[in-house]
Amino acid sequence: MENIQAFKRLMDSPRSVVVVTHFKPDADALGSSLGLAGYLRKKGHRVTVVTPSDYPSFLAWMPGNREVIAVSKDDPRPLEAAKAAMQSADLIFCLDFSNLKRTEDLADTIRGSKATKVLIDHHLEPEKFADFEQWTVASASTAGLVYQLIKELGEEDLVDADIANCLYAGLMTDTGGFRHSNTTRMEFMLASELVGRGADPSCVAKLIYDNNSLERLRLTGFVLAQKLQVLPEYRTAYMVLSADELRQFGSQTGDTEGLVNYGLSISNIRLSVLLYERKTEIKYSFRSLGDFSVNELARRHFEGGGHKNAAGGTFKGSLADALKKFLDLLPEYRAKLNS
Ligand code: AMP
Ligand code: MN
Ligand code: MN
Questions:
Q1: Is 4 left (phi over 0), alpha (psi -120 to 50) or beta?
Q2: Alpha helices (H) in 88-174, listed in sequence order
């Protein structure tokens, strides 16, 4: 962090803090938030963790989960509580997103709040709204950046097993289990330090990866057998899931996570896309290999973004139109996909 001394002075007295992350948080979003919250509480700050939506049940083991205020479309109370906490906060920490619109219904409240804003993130092209930034795309995870910030403050001894497990979960998942191209020596060094502070790799892996409902596994089988399409001329794989199909498999938040990666596991495929229906929009998940930037694709055409090789986007309209929009773009990218 650039102005670390000023930040340190600010955090030297007990503060009222809100930690917020992105809509439909993944393990890095929630793990970095709860890891940071655990540390801040140990320092004597009053901390409220807010998520703009619900999140997968395989994240509910994280220490601090029970105190999270999760905004819900079905109940206005969490949104009101979240806004009230933000309006009276001294500081708002924004974790694992680079654009305030990813906090959906909370964006205006964050923007309008008088609180000092702190961005901790690793996504491309961040919006400039924060007073303090711990930001770099060189980090595979936001959780790693939280740990590095705690180290910069000289307080890594406060990181206990609960905090370490939350942070390790973010690091493990955003590197795809230390497999993606963002896995560098630094990621292994951070992992080693977190394990040294009590993180349990096999326990966290079990809780996140091998904690499926039978329905989720059946959904995966259905997608692989019947929904996965391949376009060899574009080195592209795609899968489309309707709300009906998701309902048929009793799908819960998080059940579609990871499906898109199967497309990239096919040899010669460079771009994989999953499209599925959410309540009010179509969600795209993009993954790529090598130099093909899905961040650019998602930003230019799908009101989204993310990282070079992993990005998301949205579409307002029907599933068929969302698919058509994607397929119609492929000829334009043909050369890039085959280079
Ligand atoms: P997902 O496909 O949802 O797993 O997202 C892949 C990556 O892109 C993650 O780092 C997300 O945080 C990011 N991402 C997803 N949706 C968006 C969006 N609408 N705008 C910007 N980044 C996104
Ligand atoms: Mn995330
Ligand atoms: Mn992340």
A1: alpha
A2: 107-112, 142-152, 161-174
pLDDT digits (tens, 9 = 90+) for 134-166: 999 999 999 999 999 999 999 999 999 999 999
* Residue 3 CA to ligand 2 centre (angstroms): 25
The CATH number that applies at residue 301 is: 3.10.310.30
Structural domain harbouring 76? 4-209
Ligand 1 site-directed mutation target among 20, 59, 123, 309, most atoms within 8 Å of CB: 123
Torsion, Cα of 171, 48, 39, 28 (10° steps): 0
Question: Who lines ligand 1 at CB under 6 A?
Answer: 22, 99, 102, 123, 285, 304-307, 310-314
Whole-number Å distance, alpha carbon 203 to ligand 2 midpoint, is 21
Q: Which two tokens stand for residue 244?
A: 């009906």
- Are 90 and 187 found together in one domain? yes
Ligand 2 centre distance from Cα of residue 31 (Å): 10
Specify the number of domains making up the chain: 2
* Nearest CA residue ID for atom 7, ligand 1: 311
Nearest CA to ligand 1 atom 3: 312
Same domain? 144 vs 252: no
Do residues 247 and 115 share a domain?
A: no
State the pairing for strand pair 305-306/46-51. unpaired
CATH code for the domain in which residue 80 is found:
3.90.1640.10
Distance, in Å, from the CA atom of 257 to the CA atom of 173, rounded to the nearest integer, reads: 11
Which residue, judged by its Cα, is nearest atom 13 of ligand 1?
A: 306
Distance of CA 161 from the midpoint of ligand 3 (Å): 21
**Neighbouring-strand partners of residue 285:** 274, 312
Q: Are 167 and 228 contained in the same domain?
A: no
pLDDT by residue (tens digit) across 89-147?
999 999 999 999 999 999 999 999 999 999 999 999 999 999 999 999 999 999 999 99
pLDDT tens digit sequence for 19-73: 999 999 999 999 999 999 999 999 999 999 999 999 999 999 999 999 999 999 9
Using the mean position of ligand 2's atoms as its centre, give its distance from the Cα of residue 309 in Å.
Answer: 13
When the pLDDT of each residue in the chain is averaged and rounded to a whole number, the result is 98
Question: Which ligand lies nearest the alpha carbon of 29?
Answer: 2
